[in-house]
Design goal:
Blueprint: H1 3-11, E1 14-19, H2 21-24, H3 34-49, E2 53-58, H4 61-69, H5 78-100, E3 106-112, H6 115-118, H7 120-135, E4 138-144, H8 158-169, E5 173-178, E6 199-200, H9 205-210, H10 223-235, E7 239-244, H11 250-255, E8 261-263, H12 269-278, E9 285-288, H13 290-297, E10 307-311, E11 319-324, E12 329-334, H14 339-345, H15 353-357, E13 371-372
Parallel strand pairs: 1-2, 1-5, 2-4, 3-4, 5-7, 6-8, 9-11
Antiparallel strand pairs: 7-8, 9-10, 11-12, 12-13
Helix pairs in contact: 3-5, 4-5, 8-10
The protein binds glutamic acid.
The site of glutamic acid has 14 residues, from α4 and β4.
Amino acid sequence: MASLSAAHLGQAKRVVIKIGSALLVDKDSGALRGTWLASMAEDIARLRAGGADVVLVSSGSIALGRGILGLPMTELPLEQSQAAAAAGQIRLARAWEEALAPHGQITAQVLVTLEDSTDRRRYLNSRATLETLLGFDAVPIVNENDTVATDEIRYGDNDRLAAQVAATVGADVLVLLSDVDGLYTANPQDDPGARRFDVVDQITPEIEAMAGDAGSGLSKGGMKTKLMAAKMATSAGCAMAICHGADLYPIKRLEQGGPVTWFTPQLDPHAARKRWISAMKPQGVAVIDEGAAKALRAGNSLLPAGLRAVEGDFGRGDPVSIRCTDGQTLGQGLTRYTAREATAIAGHKSHDIEELLGYPGRAVLIHRDDMAV
Ligand code: GLU
């Protein structure tokens, strides 16, 4: 199934690319690999020209910061790695901006913490920001906010962060550019008989057992974190590729059939999101009128104007059940207002929200992307 790669990438509407520290930063000198970065920028511009949205998850802040602050390549104490991340991140973001600007690409830095995905309200917020940036044709450059993250509250590796970002933005392809060219039956360095998988349709316990864990000197992730990322991405409907990224034009190489392991998505991103929303326990009920019910069935968002009443005490981002006045449950969605706010704006036009609440808010109560009808 070698054609899976070209097909997935060629048809992708939204691609997340994770770039490991070892690709961006020279291990010996600690300097940026400028020529490689320029080739990567060309690859990104070509994907963009083909009509795909591109989000980068770029590591490298700590690796770059070490060089800037004169820190050794050995394990650093927490405060020093946080300081290195702060010094390195600014240079990393500038490097991406300088590489992509000549191709007419706008870059935008997004630093996230683990809580931005575990806390539903913050998750929805970061999702809205990423979506808005993509709407402006920007290329978001995402990294973990390592300067404030401590070990207990961090992803720690950008493989899983990238999978989370892919799920958050509903990407159809995630590419992990790494220092290995895929998943092998055994560690190819120890076992000459090791064979690379072209395609993995199911991540079985046998497959998981094959993932030894050898991160490179600079990056945190090994094959284990990559498999965790694959599970996360594929169950969110996103195909995932692991391929070697250190040579120039890594995406072009992938498109031209270079070595890779592809992980097959379990369903499409849209269906995965609906399933995720439907599976949540509702914290309350939004009772809506006939007109709103019709609008929702036609695939529209729920506006405050269509809301008749509210039951339960829910917060922003919570799942609520959507019920018609005849008692029939229509579906479920994530609300952008608390129960108290929703009660205050029920039946009113969106442009009256600011006057009713005393502060501006979102125009819709439940966005159609956050709804399973
Ligand atoms: N966020 C880390 C950095 O920018 C990288 C984590 C990883 O290597 O996966 O340095």
